[in-house]
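User: I'm preparing a small set of examples for a lab meeting where we compare how different chains pack in three dimensions. I only have the primary sequence for this one, and I'd like the structure in token form so I can line it up with the others. Please keep the answer compact; I'll paste it straight into my notes.
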Amino acid sequence: MALPPQDERTLPAAVLRDLAERPLEQALADLQALVEHHGHVIVVCSPAAPTALQRRLHTLRSLMETDRVALFRPDLPPLGLAVLARQLRQLASCDISPGVLASAGRLLVHYIHAGALLNSVARLDHVPVGLKSHAKSWVPGSQFGVLAHPEPRLVKITPEALLPGPEFGTWMLVAKGQLQSDWVSATLAPAWNVQGLRETRLPAESPAWWGTGKLIEFCSYLPDLSVLYQLVTSVRRSRCHWCGIDVIGDRCVFCSATPPGHDSPPPKQLENRTAAG
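Assistant: Understood. Below is the structure token output for the 277-residue chain.
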């Protein structure tokens, strides 16, 4: 997930390697050192990560007894997740408070289009696949264009096949696996009117996420720091009533508290029974 810097201001990523396999004391010491050095830490993790890893993250946060560690798990495929993590690294160089920066991830995810070109969807679990597509995936030479975010979409590749793209200017990042095709760069990218295209290595988690190693993963995104900064700073911010940190949105990413006004009102039946009592 640690993509190369987008620009000279992009901060480096701190990669928590083998977190679930290492001794608990060592993992705790490493995370504690990051918090002490930076003040706050935003951990970006896929919801598809192994259960053991997710449990270890929650255990570490509980043991530290701190609200300075945010666990952020956006529902994105690996390349899209890596792009979002880099956008947060870009914004971390600006005058944005930790709570607003952590909340920004939930805003920026709406501007990411992530998918892949696959040779088979037989083992694709993260995007709904119909029986007809499953059957077609066994035909030699078949290829499928799959959009995982923002709305799942699947098409069998034909000369006219396209996927719905963003309605605003983006760049596209492409990561090639064991599949030979120019459909993404020659057909999809022009149809999406991308302003630039770059290539990177395929994330290690991608074959397992997409169910095949024969793929080309792609993601369109907003690359400019000035645009990202304007998006984030234009949103109204508020102060978390529990931990006191500035946030955007209706939930604090650090302590998970919601404003009192966002609490669900009691059911009307319950109110009537209380009044009658």
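A couple of notes for your slides: The chain has nine helices and ten strands. Residues 113-221 form a domain with the Hypothetical Protein Tm841; Chain: A;domain 3 fold (CATH 3.30.1180).

User: Perfect, thanks.
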